[in-house]
Amino acid sequence: MSQEIRNLEPKALWNKFADLNAVPRPSKKEERVIAFMKDFGKKLGFETIEDEVGNVIIKKPATKGMENRKTIVMQSHLDMVHQKNSDTVFDFDTQGIEMYVDGDWVRAKGTTLGADNGLGVATIMAILESTDIPHPAIEALFTIDEETGMTGAMGLKGGLLSGEILLNLDTEEDDEIDIGCAGGVDVTAERGYEEEETPENSVGFTITVRGLNGGHSGMDIHKGLGNANKIMNRLLFDGFENFGLQISEINGGSLRNAIPRESVAKVIISEIFDEAFVFDMQQTIGDIQTEFKTTEPNLEIIIEKGETPTKVMNLGVQEGLTRALYAAHNGVYRMSADIADLVETSNNIAKVIVKDGKLHVGCLTRSSVESSKFDLANALRSAFELIGCEVAITGSYPGWTPNVNSPILDVLTDIYEKQNGSKANVVACHAGLECGILGTNYPGMDMISFGPTIKGAHSPDERASIKSAQKYWKFVLEILENIPVK
């Protein structure tokens, strides 16, 4: 399996990707991949630094004849989003990613692939290891924890880097060159509640929402995809309104930056409403599946009898939660007035957990406009504070303001057009790239982002195009040869 990947062209890139994907690298548990990267740099004989937060910097001198070019920073993040299908048995903490080739695509078996941002990391590794690729002096920056807080980029101090140009390799369409991105902030609502004894003559049901596409909560937020937490709440609200449904547990979603694909709830109904409840739910399920038939053709909603829980949520808190979740905005909030087709502000209701007298709702709000980001965050905060939640607004990181007069942008657009016979799409994206954060401590650095085509990032459908990787590799090599002189 690994050999199948290693035989792909360009071999230098895919071999390093296979090496990297053999190392478990969950966000906030990057100890093994940090050690792996430090060992890689030291074996090459290059200056290798681990900073105080865990970022790794490897410095490689310019090749002969390129000493007069500007020093560049090549940057990607080491961590990856961990998502798997519910029927996939896999331990991200101990196992390497199991990859295979499917036509033009490299995929993983039932899990995320880690091409985001593993292909960027592998690119830099291949350049560092090369002996025949011309390039200027390189400072390779491998950041940690991009996917769950960007704490690596936030913790990188000024003075560690001297490069004048930053090449961020974290864009996912090979015809795009990114010059700006959204910032983000976490909105987390929590409260305790009293559990009540399950009334007599109750029947237990398990409601399961699954089969959704999921995806990146920035890049895919405009696609009209289903959010498992919003769909589940619709069912719970309907069941409570019509049949007095009571909630025992909810487990919906996982990662803040992934559109939730699955949710499971354990509920009770009075046995006198048993058949009517199931009949009504089937009608509602049919309506929802019809609404999502284009974007979510594999959506499944299953209602099945199960063990009757002994405890349920206090009815007053339950009513408040279901109403707050209905009111809380999910999806696109505002489109940019300045850049065509760019989502300006959005929210992802990423996680809903109800269990053992505690409720937790986690959201990731994104925007390329700081004031709009906090406007939506405060709207969410208000909805949940009205039901007695403590709401924390944390982990704010800035967006990256586009610079259409960037000198490195001119270099990349000229090379792209020469190689492909068409112009690249120069865009700003709704994802959270690290450029804006890195720019706070390195304000004079000229920054650009690009990468190979990756589809379905942050979901088990993640896949990387083999043909695109070849196009991208050729692009990278010519960029390195054309870095401006100092």
Helical fraction equals 25-40%
Percent strand equals 25-35%
Give me the CATH architecture of the largest domain, please: 3-Layer(aba) Sandwich
Alpha carbon gyration radius: 24 Å
Organism: Flavobacterium arundinis
InterPro entries: Peptidase_M20, Peptidase_M20_dimer, Peptidase_M20C
Domain Peptidase M20 dimerisation: 208-270
Protein name: Aminoacyl-histidine dipeptidase
Characterization of this structure:
This protein has 486 residues and is an alpha+beta fold. It has 2 domains: 2-181 and 399-481, Aminopeptidase (3-Layer(aba) Sandwich); 185-397, 2-Layer Sandwich (Alpha-Beta Plaits), CATH 3.30.70.360. The protein is 31% helix and 28% strand. It contains 12 helices and 23 strands. It has helices spanning 2-6, 11-21, 31-43, 115-129, 151-155, 228-243, 274-291, 315-327, 370-385, 407-420, 435-441, 466-481, and strands at 47-50, 56-60, 72-77, 99-102, 105-108, 138-143, 165-168, 176-181, 183-192, 195-197, 202-210, 246-252, 263-270, 300-306, 311-313, 331-335, 343-355, 358-367, 390-397, 425-429, 446-449, 454-455, 463-465. The strands form 5 sheets. Strands 9, 11, 12, 13, 14, 16, 17, 18 and 19 form a 9-stranded antiparallel beta sheet that branches. It has a 6-stranded mixed beta sheet with strand order 1-2-6-3-7-21, with helices on one face. Helix 2 crosses helix 4, helix 6 packs antiparallel against helix 7 (274-291) and helix 6 (228-243) crosses helix 8. The radius of gyration is 24 Å and the shape is elongated.
Brief characterization of the structure:
The protein has 486 residues and is an alpha+beta fold. It is 31% helix and 28% strand.
